[in-house]
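wait is this the right file?? whatever heres the structure
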C-alpha cells in the first residue's frame, strides 16, 4: 500500500518496463495488487500488475498518473478510482482478463463507488471522484469503463483506436475519458 503524498512539482515516480511485475495472491484472494491510499501525485508507469482480486486501486488520490500499465488476470476491476479521487490521469494502459472471479465485476476502469458502498468509503455521501481523465489504448473487455451514480459522467471521448501494438507504437492523442 502506498500512502506517501508528493506534490505536482515533485511527484513520486514508480517506473519500470512491462517485465517488472507486481503480482497479487490470485484473483480469488481479497486485496489489491497496488493500492494508492490517499497518495497524491504519484506517476505509476510501464509495469505489469497481475493476479489479484483488484488490480490498481486509488482511494482519495489526487493528481496521480497511471500510464502504460499492463493489467491482467484480475478477479474484479483492473483499475479503480474511488473515495473522492480527483484530477487523476489514466492513459495508454492495456487491461485484459478482468472479472474472472465472478460475473458483473470485471470493469477495466471503474470510477466512483456503488451507492451500496457509500457508507463504507465516502461517509454515506455520493462519491465525488471528479475530473479524472484518460485514454483507452486497448478495448479487450466487455465492460471497459464504468462511472457509478454520484460520480459525474466523463466528457465524451474522441474515437478510440483499438490496437494490438505495444504502447510505443500508439501515436499520442488527446487525453479524455
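ok assuming it is, sequence goes like this
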Amino acid at each position: 500500500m502506498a500512502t506517501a503524498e508528493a506534490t505536482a512539482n515533485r511527484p513520486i515516480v514508480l517506473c519500470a518496463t512491462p517485465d517488472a511485475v507486481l503480482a497479487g495472491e490470485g484473483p480469488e484472494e481479497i486485496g489489491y495488487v497496488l493500492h494508492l491510499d490517499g497518495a497524491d501525485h504519484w506517476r505509476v508507469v510501464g509495469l505489469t500488475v497481475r493476479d489479484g482480486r483488484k488490480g490498481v486501486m486509488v482511494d482519495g488520490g489526487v493528481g496521480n498518473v497511471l500510464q502504460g500499465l499492463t493489467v491482467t488476470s484480475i478477479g474484479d476491476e483492473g483499475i479503480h478510482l474511488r473515495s473522492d479521487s480527483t484530477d487523476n490521469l489514466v492513459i495508454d494502459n492495456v487491461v485484459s482478463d478482468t472479472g474472472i472471479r465472478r460475473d458483473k465485476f470485471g470493469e477495466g476502469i471503474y470510477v466512483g463507488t456503488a451507492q451500496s458502498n457509500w457508507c463504507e468509503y465516502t461517509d454515506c455521501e455520493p462519491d465525488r471522484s471528479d475530473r479524472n481523465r484518460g485514454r483507452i489504448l486497448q478495448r479487450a473487455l466487455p465492460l471497459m469503463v464504468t462511472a457509478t451514480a454520484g460520480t459525474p459522467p466523463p466528457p465524451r471521448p474522441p474515437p478510440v483506436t483499438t490496437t494490438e501494438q505495444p504502447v510505443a507504437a500508439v501515436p499520442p492523442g488527446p487525453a479524455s475519458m
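The CA atoms of residues 69 and 80 lie 13 Å apart. so i think its the right one actually
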